[in-house]
Amino acid sequence: MPNSDIQTIQLALVAAVALLMLVQMIVLLAVFFVIRKAVRSMREDLEDLRSSIAPIIYNTRDLLTRLTPKIEETTGDLAALTRSLRTQAADVQSAANEIVDRVRRQASRLDIMLSNVLDAVERASVFMADTVAKPMRQLSAILASVKAVVESLRTVDPAAARSQSSRAHGDKDMFV
Questions:
Q1: Percentage of the chain surpassing pLDDT 70?
Q2: Total of domains in the chain
Protein backbone atom coordinates (compact mmCIF):
# COMPACT_ATOMS: atom_id res chain seq x y z
CA MET A 1 0.00 0.00 0.00
CA PRO A 2 2.83 2.22 -0.05
CA ASN A 3 1.95 2.81 -3.64
CA SER A 4 -1.53 3.81 -2.83
CA ASP A 5 -0.34 6.33 -0.26
CA ILE A 6 1.87 8.03 -2.81
CA GLN A 7 -0.96 8.01 -5.32
CA THR A 8 -3.32 9.42 -2.74
CA ILE A 9 -0.82 12.13 -1.85
CA GLN A 10 -0.28 12.87 -5.50
CA LEU A 11 -4.02 12.92 -6.10
CA ALA A 12 -4.49 15.24 -3.12
CA LEU A 13 -1.70 17.49 -4.40
CA VAL A 14 -3.20 17.57 -7.92
CA ALA A 15 -6.62 18.38 -6.41
CA ALA A 16 -5.07 21.11 -4.25
CA VAL A 17 -3.22 22.58 -7.25
CA ALA A 18 -6.44 22.41 -9.31
CA LEU A 19 -8.33 24.13 -6.49
CA LEU A 20 -5.63 26.79 -6.18
CA MET A 21 -5.70 27.35 -9.93
CA LEU A 22 -9.48 27.68 -9.77
CA VAL A 23 -9.13 30.28 -6.96
CA GLN A 24 -6.43 32.08 -8.96
CA MET A 25 -8.70 32.09 -12.01
CA ILE A 26 -11.56 33.53 -9.93
CA VAL A 27 -9.25 36.22 -8.48
CA LEU A 28 -7.91 37.06 -11.94
CA LEU A 29 -11.45 37.18 -13.29
CA ALA A 30 -12.46 39.53 -10.45
CA VAL A 31 -9.40 41.72 -11.15
CA PHE A 32 -10.34 41.74 -14.84
CA PHE A 33 -13.90 42.91 -14.05
CA VAL A 34 -12.62 45.59 -11.66
CA ILE A 35 -10.11 46.86 -14.21
CA ARG A 36 -12.73 46.77 -16.97
CA LYS A 37 -15.10 48.78 -14.78
CA ALA A 38 -12.30 51.27 -13.96
CA VAL A 39 -11.46 51.58 -17.66
CA ARG A 40 -15.12 52.29 -18.49
CA SER A 41 -15.28 54.87 -15.72
CA MET A 42 -12.06 56.52 -16.91
CA ARG A 43 -13.32 56.45 -20.49
CA GLU A 44 -16.57 58.18 -19.43
CA ASP A 45 -14.61 60.77 -17.43
CA LEU A 46 -12.30 61.29 -20.38
CA GLU A 47 -15.28 61.75 -22.71
CA ASP A 48 -16.81 64.29 -20.28
CA LEU A 49 -13.50 66.10 -20.08
CA ARG A 50 -13.11 65.98 -23.86
CA SER A 51 -16.63 67.30 -24.39
CA SER A 52 -16.04 70.22 -22.00
CA ILE A 53 -12.52 71.07 -23.19
CA ALA A 54 -13.05 70.56 -26.93
CA PRO A 55 -15.15 73.74 -27.37
CA ILE A 56 -12.54 75.75 -25.53
CA ILE A 57 -9.79 74.35 -27.73
CA TYR A 58 -11.80 75.00 -30.90
CA ASN A 59 -12.68 78.54 -29.76
CA THR A 60 -9.05 79.23 -28.88
CA ARG A 61 -7.92 77.90 -32.24
CA ASP A 62 -10.55 80.08 -33.97
CA LEU A 63 -9.47 83.09 -31.93
CA LEU A 64 -5.80 82.52 -32.77
CA THR A 65 -6.70 82.09 -36.43
CA ARG A 66 -8.56 85.41 -36.44
CA LEU A 67 -5.99 87.29 -34.33
CA THR A 68 -2.80 86.06 -35.98
CA PRO A 69 -2.95 88.55 -38.90
CA LYS A 70 -3.79 91.38 -36.53
CA ILE A 71 -0.95 90.44 -34.18
CA GLU A 72 1.46 90.27 -37.13
CA GLU A 73 0.21 93.65 -38.38
CA THR A 74 0.55 95.17 -34.92
CA THR A 75 4.05 93.73 -34.59
CA GLY A 76 4.97 95.24 -37.95
CA ASP A 77 3.50 98.60 -36.92
CA LEU A 78 5.41 98.51 -33.64
CA ALA A 79 8.62 97.70 -35.50
CA ALA A 80 8.01 100.61 -37.91
CA LEU A 81 7.17 102.92 -35.00
CA THR A 82 10.34 101.87 -33.20
CA ARG A 83 12.43 102.54 -36.30
CA SER A 84 10.73 105.93 -36.73
CA LEU A 85 11.32 106.83 -33.09
CA ARG A 86 14.97 105.84 -33.37
CA THR A 87 15.37 108.00 -36.47
CA GLN A 88 13.62 110.94 -34.83
CA ALA A 89 15.66 110.50 -31.64
CA ALA A 90 18.84 110.54 -33.73
CA ASP A 91 17.62 113.71 -35.50
CA VAL A 92 16.77 115.37 -32.19
CA GLN A 93 20.16 114.36 -30.77
CA SER A 94 21.89 115.75 -33.86
CA ALA A 95 19.95 119.03 -33.61
CA ALA A 96 20.66 119.30 -29.89
CA ASN A 97 24.38 118.71 -30.49
CA GLU A 98 24.36 121.36 -33.22
CA ILE A 99 22.55 123.85 -30.97
CA VAL A 100 24.97 123.20 -28.11
CA ASP A 101 27.91 123.65 -30.48
CA ARG A 102 26.48 126.95 -31.77
CA VAL A 103 25.80 128.15 -28.22
CA ARG A 104 29.40 127.35 -27.27
CA ARG A 105 30.71 129.26 -30.29
CA GLN A 106 28.45 132.25 -29.57
CA ALA A 107 29.42 132.19 -25.90
CA SER A 108 33.08 132.16 -26.92
CA ARG A 109 32.50 135.08 -29.31
CA LEU A 110 30.57 136.97 -26.64
CA ASP A 111 33.37 136.35 -24.13
CA ILE A 112 35.95 137.66 -26.59
CA MET A 113 33.79 140.70 -27.41
CA LEU A 114 33.18 141.53 -23.74
CA SER A 115 36.88 141.09 -22.97
CA ASN A 116 37.76 143.46 -25.81
CA VAL A 117 35.14 146.02 -24.64
CA LEU A 118 36.36 145.86 -21.06
CA ASP A 119 39.98 146.17 -22.20
CA ALA A 120 39.04 149.21 -24.31
CA VAL A 121 37.16 150.77 -21.38
CA GLU A 122 40.17 150.20 -19.14
CA ARG A 123 42.55 151.74 -21.70
CA ALA A 124 40.17 154.69 -22.15
CA SER A 125 39.92 155.25 -18.40
CA VAL A 126 43.71 155.08 -18.03
CA PHE A 127 44.08 157.47 -20.97
CA MET A 128 41.44 159.83 -19.56
CA ALA A 129 43.04 159.73 -16.14
CA ASP A 130 46.45 160.53 -17.63
CA THR A 131 45.02 163.11 -20.01
CA VAL A 132 42.91 164.93 -17.41
CA ALA A 133 45.00 164.46 -14.25
CA LYS A 134 48.35 165.55 -15.64
CA PRO A 135 47.10 168.91 -17.02
CA MET A 136 45.07 169.46 -13.84
CA ARG A 137 48.17 169.01 -11.72
CA GLN A 138 50.07 171.36 -13.99
CA LEU A 139 47.21 173.90 -13.89
CA SER A 140 47.03 173.57 -10.12
CA ALA A 141 50.77 174.18 -9.87
CA ILE A 142 50.55 177.23 -12.17
CA LEU A 143 47.62 178.66 -10.16
CA ALA A 144 49.49 178.13 -6.91
CA SER A 145 52.52 179.91 -8.30
CA VAL A 146 50.37 182.78 -9.65
CA LYS A 147 48.66 183.09 -6.29
CA ALA A 148 52.00 183.17 -4.50
CA VAL A 149 53.29 185.85 -6.87
CA VAL A 150 50.13 187.95 -6.52
CA GLU A 151 50.22 187.75 -2.74
CA SER A 152 53.86 188.58 -2.59
CA LEU A 153 53.25 191.63 -4.74
CA ARG A 154 50.37 192.79 -2.55
CA THR A 155 52.25 192.73 0.67
CA VAL A 156 54.77 195.39 1.44
CA ASP A 157 56.39 193.57 4.30
CA PRO A 158 58.69 190.78 3.09
CA ALA A 159 58.37 188.86 6.42
CA ALA A 160 54.59 188.78 6.15
CA ALA A 161 54.87 187.60 2.56
CA ARG A 162 56.98 184.67 3.61
CA SER A 163 54.57 183.58 6.31
CA GLN A 164 51.62 183.74 3.90
CA SER A 165 53.50 181.87 1.19
CA SER A 166 54.36 179.10 3.66
CA ARG A 167 50.66 178.96 4.57
CA ALA A 168 49.76 178.69 0.88
CA HIS A 169 52.05 175.69 0.51
CA GLY A 170 50.47 174.01 3.53
CA ASP A 171 46.94 174.66 2.27
CA LYS A 172 45.25 171.29 1.77
CA ASP A 173 42.07 172.69 0.24
CA MET A 174 43.53 173.16 -3.17
CA PHE A 175 41.42 172.61 -6.26
CA VAL A 176 42.34 169.45 -8.10
A1: 86
A2: 1
